[in-house]
Amino acid sequence: MSKLCIIPARGGSKRIPRKNIRDFWGKPIIAYSIEAALQSGLFDKVMVSTDDEEIAGVSVKYGAEVPFMRSASTADDFATTADVLAEVLKKYENEGISFEYACCCYATAPFTTAQRLAEGFNKLITENADSVFPISAFSYPIFRSFKRSDDGRVGMIWPENLNKRSQDFPEAFHDAGQWYWFVVDRFLKSGQLFTNNSIGLEISTLEVQDIDNEHDWHLAELKYGYLQSIK
By CB atoms within 10 Å of each CB, which of 13, 104, 129, 158 scores lowest? Predict the structure, then answer.
């Protein structure tokens, strides 16, 4: 069962410049994903897909491979994660190297652990899933959410839920945005990471933090520090 870890890390991050190699608790944030993948012992190769020489150098320093640089077409603001993964897998195929399973680990996911990666792979195999990824529950019932017009006025998206009790709504989850295990041949055929045969691995909200701005970054550091203090 050959397995590949792909860590996408382009150089052109806009909202947080040089985000993928910015210091997070004493080391570049990408190092956490690389180290979790290596420590899991699950992968034949742990590689970083980047268009940036500095990111490539940092990645190699922490133990990842950078066998080729990312193309310009998958390094712009419009390329999807699926585009990047397909490019990597096809480049390996062109070199006569194929993989049965792969895992996309985001570069800015310091809460990723070897244990969670192992749990995800186990679900992928035992449940015969197309893909497995971590999910976390919304803290507020999304079925009572509001939309806002240009003039600031708000209205319920589902007004029929106005008088329903919170406990009467089904629990809703969001993608934790950390990693995605998938079966390679199924992904290459569909081009999709999410299918009707995908499975979510529920994790605590303490293990999840989107990092899109400075406020998010500091929240992530606070959460990470707290998790380290209670180990």
Answer: 158
Q: pTM for the complete prediction?
A: 0.95
pLDDT (tens digit, 9 = 90+) per residue, 74-92? 988 889 999 999 999 999 9
Instruction: Please report, for the chain, the start and end positions of each structural domain, with discontinuous segments joined by +.
Output: 3-135+174-229
Name the region of 128 (left: φ>0; alpha: ψ -120 to 50; beta: rest): left
pLDDT digits (tens, 9 = 90+) for 148-207: 999 999 999 999 999 999 889 999 999 999 999 999 999 999 999 999 999 999 999 999
DSSP state of 69: P
Strand intervals (E) in 36-130: 45-49, 101-105
User: How far apart (Å, rounded) are the C-alpha atoms in residues 132 and 182?
Assistant: 7
Residue in 3, 184, 191, 178 with CA at minimum distance from that of residue 83: 191
Gap between the terminal Cα atoms of the chain: 33
Topology at the third CATH level for domain 3-135+174-229: Spore Coat Polysaccharide Biosynthesis Protein SpsA; Chain A (3.90.550)
- DSSP annotation of 201: E
Q: Length of the chain in residues, anyone?
A: 231
Angstrom distance (rounded) from CA 120 to CA 105? 12
